[in-house]
């Protein structure tokens, strides 16, 4: 239990930075492997003659600077006979569309689900399940709507990688003639040879109605099937929380129900250490009235309840989001204050016992609300929602990023430029030696920064320290070329087996890294790569270029990093992507705060551009280089700070 005090705020920002008319709301925030953030949400246009919602996507760097913000909408044109003039009138109306969930694809794009109604101001068409794919630079890669026929209203609420490829979406279906009765739909989509998503697997949809209505809000893979959670309205005329485990074909294995004597609402869920934690809100007696309190239940993989807890005082508290930080649960809470305004709060809970550790309210607003939150790769936490400073001001997106607790310290040990051959005759090993002045480990993550191999399905990758070995990756069924920025963390939302080459993103490893927490960090950390294929060194070349070990230890006076590792821990990271076309992501690490200049030179040594020239704090940063009209070729990126110079090559293609 490292996290015995509230998390310190690293930064907190409004987006857009300046107040604008129209509502902004975040619905999902994710961290991408370079430490940056992407937010998906909704922008409401109230000031127009035809108010409507548009999907909003925003990319933010590790320091909280907005890289870009895009809203996506459209127009529907219809032609109507004017009975007075006997002429055809052209009527143009905006689409109504909303984003509910998002994930990062292996290609580095952002896949969003929600709903779209092409004709928001009249009833010609119903809502359909939205599937939109956006590139890292904000361009639309794919955009379509499914199940928008007849009078069946459909809406996608949660998306995850599907077993066997593609993606699975938990959605709601309101069939024509069913009135307000909503069913749960589990849909699977996969790209065809033309790059278009198809819902072709039989059955195309597995529909379930648990009560009068069923609203799924969360879906993830688990042991050859899926877990689905949400809220349903039972025959007892109350809302209840449900958790359903399915087989691979999405049919029911078992369903469990949770809640108290009164209404309950699902908020979020997380899988950790062979248990599932569901958080939500339960209406309980408080004095002479009833108030919603944070509701938390711990369940094993067989569906058995380990314990249930409620948290909160005399006021109303809604449990919205949950993740794991420092091996404790951190819950995002919307707390209602004495003025009946909502406030953002975090609640920390011991994952083993369910005991409350602390609760803290953040920000000073007229009103604010959390919509999404997630753990970050530096053992911190980030939340996203909406807030406004006055009753007359439209809310904007508000994002807060937290460091890990002040009694811990995160260390990133980077190994790069290794070029270690991977052969089938002998395992390939690389070692990081750590000398630490403290003996407690609170967190371990691993990133395979670059491993070049034509068939990663042949590879087994393990990490060993102090007599304990953990299998990180074990011959993944979805083979292909290379591991590029493949992050492995115990609380990854998706198992590594669900990914696709080059496995870019954060995944849950084959075996948890949790056993290392009982060891002293000092000593050798050994990464072993075993190629179970045939043929010696592959004809295309198979090498480990670099990997990173992230440790969170008890804070102390020493860094815990040997001198040779410290030198590797600063400077430019590999350029992503490389080669590149429209933009290049330049990541870099600073050992100390100071003035930073990031410049671009061509092959003749001529200055081709300045990316940044500013003062930055120590730690991890990133900047985006847009080459503009520069010609294709090789360019050299120079990082200068405090007497240190770091250089990387970047290849611009047209």
Summarize the SSE layout with pairings.
Elements: E1 9-15, E2 23-31, E3 37-45, E4 52-60, E5 66-72, E6 75-82, E7 87-94, E8 96-104, E9 110-117, E10 128-134, E11 140-146, E12 153-161, E13 167-174, E14 183-191, E15 197-198, E16 205-208, E17 213-222, E18 225-233, E19 239-246, E20 252-258, E21 264-272, E22 275-286, E23 289-300, E24 305-311, E25 317-325, E26 328-336, E27 342-349, E28 356-362, E29 367-375, E30 381-388, E31 396-402, E32 408-415, E33 420-421, E34 428-434, E35 441-452, E36 459-465, E37 468-474, E38 483-488, E39 505-507, E40 523-531, E41 543-554, H1 563-568, E42 571-572, E43 584-590, E44 594-601, E45 607-616, E46 619-625, E47 633-641, E48 644-652
Parallel strand pairs: 38-39
Antiparallel strand pairs: 1-31, 2-3, 3-4, 4-5, 6-7, 8-9, 9-10, 10-11, 12-13, 13-14, 14-15, 14-16, 17-18, 18-19, 19-20, 21-22, 22-23, 23-24, 25-26, 26-27, 27-28, 29-30, 30-31, 32-41, 33-41, 34-40, 35-38, 35-41, 36-37, 36-40, 42-43, 43-46, 44-45, 44-47, 47-48
């Amino acid at each position: 239990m490292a996290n015995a005090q509230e998390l310190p705020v690293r930064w907190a920002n409004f987006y857009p930075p300046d107040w604008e008319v129209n509502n902004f709301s975040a619905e999902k925030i994710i961290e991408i492997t370079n430490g940056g953030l992407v937010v998906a949400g909704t922008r409401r246009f109230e000031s127009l003659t035809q108010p409507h919602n548009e999907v909003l996507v925003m990319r933010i760097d590790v320091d909280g600077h907005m890289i870009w913000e895009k809203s996506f909408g459209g127009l529907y044109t219809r032609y109507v006979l004017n009975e007075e003039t006997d002429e055809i009138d052209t009527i143009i109306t905006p689409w109504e569309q909303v984003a509910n969930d998002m994930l990062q694809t292996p290609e580095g794009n952002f896949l969003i689900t929600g709903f779209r109604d092409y004709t928001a101001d009249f009833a010609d068409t119903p809502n359909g399940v939205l599937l939109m794919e956006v590139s890292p630079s904000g361009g639309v890669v794919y955009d379509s709507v499914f199940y928008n026929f007849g009078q069946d209203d459909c809406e996608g609420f949660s998306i995850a990688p599907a077993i066997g490829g593609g993606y699975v979406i938990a959605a709601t279906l309101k069939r024509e003639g069913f009135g307000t009765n909503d069913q749960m739909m589990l849909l699977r989509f996969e790209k065809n040879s033309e790059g278009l998503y198809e819902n072709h697997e039989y059955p195309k949809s597995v529909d379930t109605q648990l009560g009068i209505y069923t609203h799924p809000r969360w879906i993830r893979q688990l042991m050859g099937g899926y877990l689905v959670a949400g809220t349903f309205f039972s025959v007892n005329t109350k809302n209840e929380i449900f958790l359903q485990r399915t087989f691979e074909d999405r049919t029911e294995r078992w369903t469990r129900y949770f809640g108290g004597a009164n209404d309950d609402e699902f908020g979020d869920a997380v899988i950790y250490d062979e248990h599932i934690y569901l958080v939500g809100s339960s209406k309980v007696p408080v004095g002479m009235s009833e108030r919603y309190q944070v509701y938390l239940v711990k369940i094993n993989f067989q569906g058995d309840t380990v314990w249930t807890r409620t948290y909160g005082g005399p006021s109303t508290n809604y449990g919205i989001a949950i993740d794991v930080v420092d091996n404790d649960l951190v819950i995002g809470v919307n707390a209602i204050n004495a003025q009946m305004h909502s406030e953002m709060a975090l609640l920390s809970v011991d994952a083993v016992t369910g005991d409350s550790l602390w609760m803290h309210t953040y920000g000073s607003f007229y009103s604010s609300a959390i919509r999404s939150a997630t753990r970050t790769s530096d053992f911190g936490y980030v939340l996203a929602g909406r807030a406004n400073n006055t009753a007359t001001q439209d809310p904007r997106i508000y994002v807060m990023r937290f460091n890990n607790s002040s009694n811990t310290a995160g260390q990133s040990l980077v190994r790069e430029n290794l070029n270690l051959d991977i052969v089938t005759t002998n395992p390939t090993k690389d070692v990081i030696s750590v000398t630490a002045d403290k003996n407690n480990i609170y967190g371990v993550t691993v990133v395979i920064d670059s491993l070049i191999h034509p068939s990663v399905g042949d590879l087994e990758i393990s990490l060993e320290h102090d007599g304990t070995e953990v299998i990180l990756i074990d011959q993944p069924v979805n083979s292909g070329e290379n591991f590029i920025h493949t992050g492995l963390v115990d609380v990854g939302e998706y198992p590594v087996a669900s990914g696709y080459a080059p496995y870019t993103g954060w995944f849950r490893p084959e075996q948890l890294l949790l056993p290392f927490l009982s060891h002293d960090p000092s000593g050798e950390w050994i990464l072993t790569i075993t190629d179970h294929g045939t043929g010696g060194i592959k004809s295309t070349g198979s090498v480990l270029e670099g990997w990173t070990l992230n440790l969170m230890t008890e804070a102390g006076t020493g860094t815990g990093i040997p001198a040779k590792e410290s030198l590797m821990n600063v400077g430019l990271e590999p350029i992503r992507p490389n080669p590149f076309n429209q933009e290049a992501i330049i990541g870099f690490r600073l050992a100390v705060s100071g003035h930073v200049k990031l410049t671009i030179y061509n092959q003749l040594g001529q200055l081709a551009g300045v990316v940044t020239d500013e003062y930055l704090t120590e730690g991890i940063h990133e900047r985006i280089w847009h080459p503009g009209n520069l010609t294709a070729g090789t360019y050299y990126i120079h990082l200068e700070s405090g007497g240190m110079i770091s250089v990387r090559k970047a290849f611009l293609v047209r």
